[in-house]
Design goal:
Layout lengths: L4 E7 L20 H5 L5 E4 L9 H9 L6 E5 L2 H6 L5 H18 L3 E7 L9 H11 L6 E4 L10 H6 L4 E2 L1 E2 L11 E4 L17 H13 L3 E6 L1 H4 L2 H12 L7 H6 L3
Parallel strand pairs: 1-2, 1-9, 2-3, 3-4, 4-5, 5-6, 7-8, 8-9
Helix pairs in contact: 2-4, 7-9
């Protein structure tokens, strides 16, 4: 049986409310990613949704993280939301973005996330498959996130798999037939005001996802948003404990133990 490798990370690493419970007090912004990577082995980049990063930025991120660390990144909204995958320009933008991250991050590239709009439904399946066909030759790690519930009654998972694309699983929509390869735990938008502790414990859900992850095979990425429980690092610690994975003490808690 293929051994499962589970990468865990949050969505972004720079939040003022994390200073104390996660980061040591006074940690400069330039050190945040390095400190983060001492605890978790992956990160999902949200900034790339708004614009492609510079080559120099990718090089800096790669330098600040250890071997084996993985960056997953959202494809810019110009492709997914404004052009809705339609036309040669969408394909070119996605191709250029994918190659930029592949060249800039090398082995540290995790997945390239095509997060489609909430109203992108099965009626646009043809556009999605044409777009996927155009990117097949690149053999890059594309993952599609579908957020419209109508996809649950389609064969899109197998159709994308034939084209070398995976499907993301979320706590909102899970498309039947899609292997668990990329899990996003999102919670409800603006459900908490601060991001410094688990305010909305979801222990039963975490038990469920832990069992799903134990049954998965191959490489799996798990990314958690602050809104899921209130403090994404704590959620990941709870999940890693359920999976029997190591749970390093965050730098901020190490600092607190000194006083």
């Amino acid at each position: 049986m293929e051994k499962t490798r589970i990468y865990t990370g949050t969505m972004g690493w720079s939040y003022p409310d994390w200073e104390g419970p996660f980061y040591a007090l006074g940690t400069p912004d330039s050190r945040l990613l390095t400190e983060y990577a001492k605890v978790f082995d992956a990160i999902e980049l949200d900034t790339t949704f708004y614009a492609s990063p510079r080559e120099s930025t990718l090089a800096q991120w790669a330098r600040q993280t250890p071997d084996g660390f993985k960056f997953s990144a959202k494809v810019p909204r110009l492709v997914t939301h404004e052009r809705r995958l339609v036309g040669p320009a969408s394909v070119k933008e996605a191709r250029d973005f994918g190659l930029l991250l592949h060249e800039g991050l090398g082995k540290k590239l995790g997945r390239l996330i095509l997060q489609l709009p909430p109203d992108f439904g099965p009626g646009e399946a043809g556009n999605l498959l044409v777009f996927a066909d155009a990117l097949t030759e690149l053999s890059l790690p594309w993952t599609v996130e579908l957020r419209e519930s109508g996809w649950q009654q389609t064969l899109i998972a197998s159709q994308l798999a034939e084209r070398g694309m995976a499907l993301a699983t979320t706590d909102r929509v899970a498309v039947p037939g899609a292997p668990l390869t990329y899990l996003r735990l999102l919670g409800e938008e603006n459900s908490v005001e601060r991001f410094d502790q688990r305010i909305i414990p979801r222990d039963t859900e975490l038990d469920h996802w832990a069992e799903q992850l134990k049954a998965a095979t191959g490489t799996v990425f798990v990314h958690v948003r602050n809104f899921y429980e209130g403090h994404a690092p704590a959620t990941l610690t709870e999940l890693r404990r359920r999976l029997g994975l190591s749970t390093p003490t965050p730098p901020g808690q190490q600092q607190m133990s000194l006083f």
